[in-house]
Amino acid sequence: MSWRKSNILNYFAGQDTPPWRAVLLANVPVAAILLAMIPIGRVLEDNLDPYYLRVVMLIGFNIILAVSLQLINGFSGQFSLGHAGFMAVGAYLAGFPALQYSKDFNDPSTTLIFFISLLIAVGLGAAVLWMFFLGMRRTRHVHRSLPGILLMVLLVWIVTDFAVASKYQHPPFWAFWSLLADSLQGLFGSMMNLLGPMAASISAAMPGAVRRPLCFIVLLYGAGCCASAVGFIVGLPALRLRGDYLAIATLGFGEIIRIAIQNSRPLGGALGLTSIPKYTDFTWLYVVVIITIVAIWRIAYSSKGRAIMAVREDEIAASSIGVNTTTFKVMAFTIGAFFAGIAGALFSLHEQSISPYQFGVVKSIEPVVMVTLGGLGSISGAILAAIVLTLLPEVLRDISPQDRMVIYSLLLVVMMILRPQGLLGGRELWPRRRGPLRSPAPACSERAVPV
Predict the structure, then answer these.
(1) pLDDT (tens digit, 9 = 90+) per residue, 414-439?
(2) What domain range is 378 assigned to?
(3) In a domain, 287, yes or no
(4) How far apart are CA 328 and CA 300, in angstroms?
């Protein structure tokens, strides 16, 4: 390669350019693909049969779930079965404010105030719980098993408190946790009543073309952050476990989230939410799909991603070289929960009605099967498996339900027998890293020899 050609290639690869220009050049292909989704979405929505369009949309939801779970199960080596719980958090915390506060996506400021008020109210409740936890931790100086016993007592106290207080119209004076929940709910309502009118006036001053997409983005990001916070709370204690114990713990937490939603009257209880305004379309969904793939890919193959994979390969060895294993496991868990919440938000703003049964154990197992079938540690494998496993039931739809499930299960079993490492194993269909071109090292004959 000539000197001139090498310099031109290095210039466009970012080696001889300022950092900001290198970042822009590196993201040009991503921006081009995102812009291409606009005309593609319009063509498909105008010409594609509604049934096939729905299948395409289901593929998009499943890709986000599978790729985000790949960061947890594939790259960090944890075995999570609670992904549907994070999806439920995102779905309800996008559907509820969209229904109650967004005014058909025309009030982004009030929607933002909803999430800020929720953060303050939940943060105060979390602070009270944290004070109890700190007090329990101090009891380990008395006996090392005492904090665990007190934690179980606290959980029983909270569950009994809510179960008994639910029989009263107003919680009695001794129901501490029910009174705390009512106080936080009152604080949330007061903040919305105080700040809501001011936020609505700010939204009214915005151009009409900006309000709807901005409100949608606020809902997506707010729902994702809520799911991420729940993932952090769940992951911090659960990720001290390993293997089957971790799987059972995350499955239990996912069911706790679903049952809590099912017993929440503001969220519709067992009937769920209906008449949610629709906004998610092909363009928005697949823009988020591309952003999810690029974000997970860059995280997985960055320096932090290498630390996450080091924890997967050997946690003791990673800890011995200074890797904080708990930090990186919780980081992977939290980021995966964030994108699961985004998938739930997109789902609820597309389906227009959601209910707790849609986020049960089966929904948690589906992305696990996709990740395993595609190959642990392969983002492109998770995408391929999400497409295959979404299309397969549709291909077998003309067969009776019993025969369809038998064939579906047999195909998965045969696949695991013939290729236990998954469709792609740990490989990718594209390069794992991109970087600037570098000049080759000089040959031995060209090196200066000291005299």
Answers:
(1) 887 888 778 887 777 776 655 444 44
(2) 48-106+207-436
(3) yes
(4) 11
